[in-house]
Design brief:
This protein has 223 residues and is α+β, with helices and mostly antiparallel strands. It contains five helices and eight strands; from the N terminus they run H-E-E-E-E-H-E-E-E-E-H-H-H. A hairpin with a 5-residue loop joins strand 5 and strand 6. The protein is globular, with a radius of gyration of 20 Å.
Length: 223
């Protein structure tokens, strides 16, 4: 009897520690002398689903139809193109020889008990920079100590619905709904949750735009 109880306890602990389902996105941007280079990827439950290299974004797992995905590709390319052009404009106004590395890590996790957790973290030159507090749709500074760039970028990102409420909806609803569909083994996302996953990449590039603006405007201490 004791052995059975111990075995039940071990199995129970194993169930509680089961790995959550996860959809994560990683976007890396290198800015140097007005030039921007992009790399990134997305993974669904550990399996590569999207790849970003330069201006090219590809769908590895067919989560959207070819026609729908072609439209999403155009949207992403347009956003990244706008980002590149604005960075070049900023650099003309305030040239800088520094190389900046921006990294956005965002996504969501769905645990076996049905609870979910969403996140969006940003690093600048490999140091914690900003994070998005999903429940309140607010950006928080993570940089150790005072940094005008962080304060400026935080203020810029808080100005617009696309980098607050829209981002919150993507992380809390679109992302989690995808995982719920995967959990049910339907392989499909229904209803409103069919909002393109690549929206996360678009929102990420808009977030980077606000940060890049802060970097260039604050370089000379004028923000």
């Amino acid at each position: 009897m004791l052995r059975l109880l111990l075995l039940a306890g071990i199995l129970g602990c194993g169930a509680e520690q089961a790995a959550p389902l996860a959809f994560t996105m990683l976007q890396l941007t290198r800015v140097y002398k007005g030039n921007s280079m992009f790399r990134g990827n997305a993974s669904l439950n550990g399996q590569l689903s999207h790849v970003l290299e330069g201006n090219n974004v590809t769908q590895v797992i067919p989560l959207e139809s070819p026609d729908a995905w072609a439209r999403r590709q155009d949207e992403v390319i347009a956003y990244l193109g706008n980002f590149r052009q604005l960075v070049m404009l900023f650099n003309k106004e305030r040239p800088t020889d520094f190389t900046h590395h921006l990294c956005c890590h965002l996504g969501c996790r769905l645990y076996p008990n049905g609870t979910a957790q969403s996140f969006y973290e940003v690093t600048l030159n490999r140091t914690a920079f900003l994070s998005f507090h999903v429940p309140s749709a607010t950006w928080e500074r993570r940089w150790p100590g005072e940094l005008p760039v962080a304060a400026f970028a935080q203020a810029q990102l808080m100005k617009y619905p696309v980098t607050t409420q829209d981002l919150q909806y993507f992380l809390n609803t679109t992302c989690v709904s995808l995982l719920q569909a995967q959990s049910a083994r339907t392989g499909r996302v229904s209803g409103r949750s069919r909002t393109p996953l690549v929206l996360g990449l678009v929102l990420g590039s808009l977030g980077l735009l606000g940060m890049a603006l802060g970097i260039f405007l604050c370089t000379g201490g004028s923000c």
